[in-house]
Structures are given as structure tokens and as C-alpha cells.
Here is the input.
Amino acid sequence: MSGREQGDVMSQAGAILDAVARAADRIHAACSVAEALPDVLAILGPAAGVSRVYVFEHVAHVRDDARIRQRFEWCAPGVEPQIDNPDLQDADLVAMGYGRWVRELTAGRAIVGDVADFPEEERPILEAQSIRSVLVQPIFAGKYWWGFIGFDACDDVRAWHPVEIDSLRVAAQVCGLALALESRDAFARHAYKMEALGRMASGVAHDVNNLLAIMQANVDLLRRGEVDVGERLFELNHAIDQASRLSRELLAFGRPADARAPLTEPLEALRNVEGLLRRVAGRAVRLELDAEGEIAPVRIAPSQLEQIALNLVTNARDAMSDGGVILLLVRTLDASEASALGDELPAGRYTLLSVRDSGHGIPVELHDRVFEPFFTTKESGQGTGLGLATIYGAVSAAGGAVRLTSAAGEGTEVRIYLPVA
Here is the structure.
């Protein structure tokens, strides 16, 4: 290879690595890997100088099942898209004659070369898509084969230099790492919610038993016919109202997240689950809700706001082993008023949810780590973490900000700022 050709290759590889860095930034800024991937492919395609870039997901996520599904695609102008090709949805690679691909990809090796040099059984489908050269890199999310990312050259035969192959392997690894972290974070969120639900279960059962006891006692008295019927019916109706309220709280907490970010009244959402928050806080902790003035609505799913409050109250309770006070403060204010609290925000109006406890606090040297997905100040076996990474993601997706004030022995305050809708 001449010096000029070598320079061209290195320049191309540099452009690819720069694109990989920008793709990683896009993934980091997105709410999910799936949301980011169309932009990621649009960044990688032009940088790699190819006709088409696509991502296939391994449907079953087990080695003995070779079914795949095309999920994302970018095409250069004039190149026919294949995203709607029915032959590429839930397709069995082995049955299609791509057993070699499965062996290589699951072993972590790339498929690369000119289609004309591929085994005969592999060529028809590729040639039908006008592919002349191809590079396919496996994507691993953790230890399992998640799928692959492919780069097609349709206009001409493409010679792939090892530096380019390695650079695009990095792109696949970035996607795989993001998918693995996303999966672990989803598992942690579920475990955290189950932990909170388990702790709240005893309080709910206690309330239900109390209501059932009231109902049973009044039914017994009515059956004997020795009491004022109107008074007993009043007691029964009151107990039924309490049971209905408890059911509404549980249903409100269990609502699925709405990806369309509906208009939400923060105070109403918190009132819906106030009883559950008090049960999570426990009897040794006094929970106070302070809301003054008009509280403006925000764009976030009610269930997400409720989950944020639950996580913060759970953390606050865990920080006060001997009991204490948790203050939930809700306000609508300007960015200039937030600066008085030491929080610099873009100009505008925000609804603030602040959760403050009187617990042991978080040392200043740990503040930079509290938003990491699996960081915790709890002892081993004492929970799944602080859950602040989940909170940070939900608030950021809503265009808001999270701020923390804490010091060892001085309690902790977490402030959630959500833009007024």
C-alpha cells in the first residue's frame, strides 16, 4: 500500500472513530438505546462511506435459536431500504443458509468480504439487495449475543482495511455495552420497586385487616338486631370508603408509564399515593407534605412522578434508622428563585419537588457517584441501591434537573425541577 493509500485509510478510520464517539454521546443523551439507534446509524453510515447500515436483533437470545429480526436501518440516497422486507423479519439464519454467520458471530468474529466470494447458499439474498461487499459485526449485551450491526456497499466492491474493521467493532461494542447497562438498570428498577412494595405490604395488610374487623363487627351487631341500624350502616359506609381510597392508591401506583408524557398535576399525583408513601416511611418516621401557592402542571407520566417520590422517600427512610422527619415540599417557582437555593437552571418556570430527611447524610466526596446506576451507601444485603440513576433519567427525559444537598450527619435533600407545561 502506498503512503497516500495508507493516509486515506487512516483518515477514513479517524472519521469512523469520531463518528463512534458522537454515536456514544447520542446513546448517552437518549432515554433508551432504541430511541438513539436511528441517529447512531445515520452518524455511522456516512462516516464509513457505505450504502446501508442496519441492526438485527437475535429474537430468542439463546444460542440454539438462530432467528433474527431487522430493527433499524439507514440508507444513503438512492439505496432501496430493506427494513420492511418480510424475509428479514423473524428469519431463521440457519434455515436461510447462513449457518456460517451464526457460528462466526456467536464466537465474536466479524463477517466481512465481497459477496461474490461468499458460499453459494449465502449469495442470493445478498445479491437481491444489490449488496456487493459487506461487513457485519456482532453485538453482545453482556455475555449473550444480542444481534449484529451490518454495513453494506452497494455501489461498488469495497475493500475493508483491518483498521476500519476494528473501528466499527468498537461501534458494535458501544451499542452492546449500552444495551447491557439498560437491561441491568431495568432489572434494578424492577427489584427496587418490588423491594418497596414488599415493605409496604405489611402496612397495607394491617389497614385492610382493620377495615375488615370494623365491617365484621358491624355486620354481627346488625345480625343480632340490638343496635341502631342507621349508626351501624354509617360505620360500614365509612369503612367501605376507606377501603376504596386504599384501592385507588394502589391502582394509581400501579399505572404503567405513559410514553407520551401527559400533562400531570404534581400535587394530585402525590396525594394519590400519599398513604402509600406514609406506609413506606414507616411508623418511626413522620412524613410531612408542604405545598403552598398554585402548583403548575408538568409534562411527565403520573406513574413516573409517583415512582420518583417513592424512591426518594424510601432512601430517606433508610437513612434514618432511629426515626426522624421527611419533608416533601412542592412549589412552583422561577429559575431566579432556584438560584437562591444554589441551583442554576435555564431561564423559565419550574415545579419543584423537594424531599428532605434528617438522616445520616451522604459524605461530600460521594456526591459525584450517587447518580451511578448501581451505587449505594447501604450495607451489603440492605437493598438494591439509591435509585437516583432512574430518577435522573426520568427527570432528564422530561427536560428537568436533579440537585442534591447533603453532608455527613446533616441529612439529605434531593430537589427535582420539572419545567412548567
Q: What stands out?
A: The chain has eleven helices and 13 strands. Residues 162-224 form the longest helix (63 residues).
